[in-house]
Specification:
By secondary structure, the protein is mainly α. The protein has helices at about 15-40, 40-45, 55-80, 85-105, 115-135. The protein has one domain.
């Protein structure tokens, strides 16, 4: 009598966690954009920035764009092969955000605590770049 041994194949790759992480970052970006829209003075306080007008008004506008770009990143990361354009623009947005916040700290417009935000955006840019690099080519393109 032969015994049957069940094995789990080790050479079958599982789902790629990078797009899932990029989708989460897109969701966090959209949520933080909504926070800017709803509570810009609080966010300016956290960043160590001035809270006098027109800063809150301008941060609400930035929040609207963050909400849209976060949604774009989440959608693009759902299907990296099809969402290449969205991912490239999201990468540009994250690099731009990291640079702008870093320059804001350097020019003393933001407090040093804002460097955490710049670091998050820089790490997010690296993640999005990795998703782009690992994405299979889209069919027909």
């Amino acid at each position: 009598m032969k015994s049957v041994v069940e094995t789990t194949p080790t050479d079958v790759p599982g789902p790629d966690p990078l797009p899932t992480a990029a989708m989460a970052i897109g969701g966090l970006t959209a949520a933080s954009g909504l926070a800017l829209i709803v509570a810009p003075r609080f966010v300016l306080w956290v960043l160590g920035a001035g809270r006098a007008e027109p800063s809150p008004f301008l941060f609400r506008i930035i929040g609207m764009f963050m909400t849209v770009s976060g949604g774009l990143l989440a959608d693009g990361a759902r299907s990296p092969a099809q969402g290449g354009i969205a991912l490239r623009w999201s990468l540009a947005a994250k690099v731009g955000a990291a640079t702008a916040v870093g320059l804001g700290v350097r020019s003393k417009r933001f407090g040093k605590q804002a460097l955490a935000l710049a670091a998050f955006d820089a790490a997010a840019a690296g993640l999005v770049a990795a998703v782009i690099a690992r994405a299979p080519a889209a069919d027909g393109g």
